[in-house]
Amino acid sequence: VIIPSFNAEKYIEEALRSALNQTWKSLQIIVVDDDSRDSTASRVEALAAADARIALLRQTHSGLPAVVRNAGLRAAKGELIAFLDSDDSWFHNKIEIQYGWMARNDCHFSGHKCSFDQKSNFDFDNIVFTKISPWRILISNPYPTPSVMLRRDLPFRFDVSLKRLEDQLLWSEIALSEHGCYYCSTPLAFVHKA
Fold first, then answer.
1. Distance (Å, whole) CA 148 – CA 141
2. Cα dihedral sign for 174, 188, 42, 9?
3. How many CA atoms lie within 13 A of 72 on its CB side?
4. Cα 124 from Cα 188, distance rounded (Å)
5. Total Cβ atoms within 10 A of residue 28
6. Which DSSP symbol is given to 54?
7. 88, 134, 156, 186: most buried, per Cβ within 10 A?
8. Please, which residues have CB within 8 angstroms of residue 22's CB and are 6 or more apart in sequence?
9. What pLDDT, on a 0 to 100 scale, did the predictor assign at position 163?
10. DSSP helix/strand/coil, 59
11. Please, which residues have CB within 8 angstroms of residue 25's CB and are 6 or more apart in sequence?
């Protein structure tokens, strides 16, 4: 799990708790702090002291999500990588559902719908991932970053020359390289900012 952060003291603990409270417990959680000026790092350190699955990487401020996420990708050891923004959170069973489906289907990339409210009365017994066209990603990004899980061995990274849309570019590169991209219309994450 890669969580980029910058001045995220208001939200970082909720994001981390949503990763720690997953029904799938075998996780490496990497918080990459982009030189926060608030108490973000100390809050992460306090949680890391209580749970060895959390690691804090600090770096000189870049101001670029691509730089921060790529640092997390370099440090990650897992076969599959999930992204969580520091001001978002996951449903408790997100990793179990998505990881399980990807492992069973030899999938390289998937994402899902996100919810903008805290309601979680969704039908988790009938989860369906469908393959989507690369052109769908080019027209409109269906993958909010906290929904994405991808194989670490894919030869693509976020473009550090971009200040915006670096995520959509990466998803498009993966799709256009003929790796199947899949989407689930059941929300498995909360996005706290519209």
1. 12
2. positive
3. 27
4. 9
5. 15
6. E
7. 88
8. 90, 92, 93, 94, 95, 96
9. 92
10. coil
11. none
Residue reference for tokens 């959509």? 168
SS3 83: strand
Which neighbouring-strand residues pair with 76?
none
Handedness of CA 68, 155, 113, 80 (dihedral sign): negative
Residues facing 130 on adjacent strands = 183
- In angstroms, the CA 69 to CA 32 distance is 7
pLDDT (tens place) for every residue of the chain, 194 residues total? 999 999 999 999 999 999 999 999 999 999 999 999 999 999 999 999 999 999 999 999 999 999 999 999 999 999 999 999 999 999 999 999 999 999 999 899 999 999 987 666 677 778 899 999 999 998 999 999 999 999 999 999 999 999 999 999 999 999 999 888 999 999 999 998 76
42 CB-contact burial (10 Å; exposed 0-12 / middle 13-18 / buried 19+) = exposed
